[in-house]
Amino acid sequence: MSSTSFPKEIHFTSPIPQEAQHILSKDAVEFLAVLHRTFDKRRLELLENRKKIQAELDQGRPLTFLPETKHIRDSPSWACAPPAPGLEDRRVEITGPTDRKMVINALNSGSKTFMADFEDSNSPTWSNMVLGQVNLYDAIRRQIDFETGGKQYKLSEKPAVLLVRPRGWHLPEPRLLIDGKPISGSLFDFGLYFFNNAAELLKRGSGPYFYLPKMEHHLEARLWNDVFSLATSHLGLQQGCIRGTVLIETLPAAFQMEEILYELKEHSSGLNCGRWDYIFSFIKKQRAHKECVFPDRSDVTMTVPFMDAYVRLLIQTCHKRKVAAMGGMSAQIPIKNDADANEKAMAKVRADKLREVTAGHDGTWVAHPALVKIALDIFNENMKGPNQYHIRREDVNVTDKQIADPSVPGKITEKGVRDNVSAALSYCAAWISGNGCVPINYLMEDAATAEIARVQLWQWVKYSSKTDSGKTITPSYLQTIFSEESSKVSKLPGIDPSHVKIASEYMSSQVKAEWPSDFLTSDLLVHLEGVGTVGGATKKSNL
User: 349 and 444: one domain?
Assistant: First the structure.
């Protein structure tokens, strides 16, 4: 099917792959147009609201619990929907992008659920976005098996329950224009998956389940709720069949957890500690305040005050409203050639999961199938029922000052600076190349790691921070490190040196900026347009 098969108001800037014709059918795309025309104006208004709140923060107005929604927080009379089929027990969830091999391995991993990711562990090339939808369509119908290199990949009898994470509200899908404007990436990812699979999932005893990223306000959750309601009505399905778990991964959202649950009430399946993006947001939102300059990224652990406060509040909030309080990601991957190093890495995973289950979390995330059994063993030993909703954490009393507490013990080291430069360059270059899930130093990193690295480098320059050896961090000091690390990254397998050059120029511009950009994925998106389409042409622009 070509774009000429659609009304002139609907235009694809990249061809639809042959194998995705059924995914981007005329009916499916017209459904996307309904979502776009109904909700895009509100989406853009909410994004403008983020800018207003940021301006207030820059002027010194602190974030607080909202006085106008105090009645929601104080009311004991409301609760969220009961767990949907397959979501009663979520003790271990594996996450990853939507390529065919990954989907099969994740669904077969032994985890309770698999979060198929169109967001931060995915590079949104056209082929990744569209063929990822094909892979999920086939997995749901158990027609995804394939063979490559003499090895067979086949779904097990009892695969994990499938959840999908669409892109955040801020990202567009530039390859589909409706009425001359790009559709929201969120609505594109959600809409295609829901239209093509919701009825089939319900028929098979499951349902359309989602993870919702990057929200900064409860009105953004209300928008998702309205999208869910309209989509369900449009397809003639039962209201309430959708479930959404919200990642609390921005500082403003931490002050509105109950309000977010309230807005999604009948569609809510809980909250998740999106901890790496949360660190990124903590720095970015408090960018105008020198006291919020952090030490090395490795020092910002789950036990520092602001992270501990946010975890305790999330567990208390979720269990008060009878939904899942999901723990965070362990990004470690096996170290195959060093048994001692591997055991130390796995010991960190065990300690992290033990901290989560004893705190009251109902489940946790891993990035690699080898970690599933480790996490399961910890949760099986310490969580005998399907969840811990009964652990109310009524001992918790988290204040707004505790959530925004910038005190993090540690120091800025030259190694920490270099690690940030290396991580940012490696990830950005891989992302431009079409890979959003990148192994770096035996950790499976996604965009959040690069974002922390980017804003830390920016704030260290902005506030003339010094390393523990007394060196002031300036653009010229960083430029030497950018050059040295670029040479190393360019030699890594699967990395295009021209993409490293783009990444280095981008990072150099960022550390000199008055304020850091909101998202590197927004900034670098132009370099992906056309990737994976006929001829493989890539549209690029100067940064």
Answer: no
Residue 242 lies in a domain: yes
For the chain, the farthest-separated pair of C-alpha atoms sits apart, in whole angstroms, at 65
**Closest Cα to residue 511, out of 485, 475, 541?**
475
Tally of domains within the chain:
2
CA nearest 516: which of 281, 298, 174, 173? Answer: 281
Catalytic-residue membership of 165: yes
Is 446 among the residues known to form the active site?
yes
Q: What is the CATH number of the domain that holds 47?
A: 3.20.20.360
Q: What is the mean pLDDT of residues 432-448?
A: 90
Instruction: Please give the span between the terminal C-alpha atoms of the chain, in angstroms, as a whole number.
Output: 35
pLDDT digits (tens, 9 = 90+) for 326-353: 999 998 999 998 999 999 999 999 999 9
- Which amino acid appears at position 107 of this protein? L
* Nearest-10 Cα torsion for 432, 525, 274, 256: 170
* Residue 7 lies inside a defined structural domain of this protein: no
Task: Provide the pLDDT for residue 538.
Answer: 36
Is residue 539 in some structural domain? no
Closest CA to 384 of 84, 111, 91, 110: 91
Closest CA to 421 of 493, 503, 515: 503
Q: Which of 100, 120, 446, 454 is catalytic?
A: 446
**H-only helix segments in 126-234:** 126-140, 185-203, 218-234
Domain-terminating residue out of 403, 424, 445: 403
Contacts of 275 by beta carbon, 8 Å cutoff, 6+ apart: 249, 302, 307, 328, 329
Catalytic residue among 43, 90, 91, 165: 165
Give yes or no for a contact between 295 and 411, defined as CB atoms under 8 angstroms apart: yes
Per the structure, the complete domain to which residue 183 belongs is given by: 22-403
Band (442; pLDDT cuts 50, 70, 90): confident
Instruction: Please report whether residue 543 resides in a domain.
Output: no
Tens-place pLDDT, residues 256-312: 999 999 999 999 999 999 999 999 999 999 999 999 999 999 999 999 999 999 999
Clarify whether residues 40 and 165 are in a common domain.
yes
pLDDT tens for 354-410 read: 999 999 999 999 999 999 999 999 999 999 999 999 999 999 999 999 999 999 999
Whole-angstrom distance, CA of residue 234 vs CA of residue 43: 20
Asked if 356 and 225 sit in the same domain, the reply is yes
Token pair of 189 as six digits: 């990812």
Q: Which of 319, 313, 282 is nearest to 408 (CA)?
A: 282
Contact 303, 271 (CB under 8 A): no
Question: How far apart (Å, rounded) are the C-alpha atoms in residues 488 and 150?
Answer: 34
pTM of the model as a whole: 0.95
Residue 513 sits in a domain whose CATH number is 1.20.1220.12
Mean pLDDT of 480-508: 95
pLDDT for 494: 85
Select from 403, 426, 451 the last residue of a domain.
403
Mean pLDDT, the chain, rounded, equals 95
pLDDT at 539 exceeding the cut of 70: no
Check if the beta carbon of residue 12 is closer than 8 Å to that of residue 176.
yes
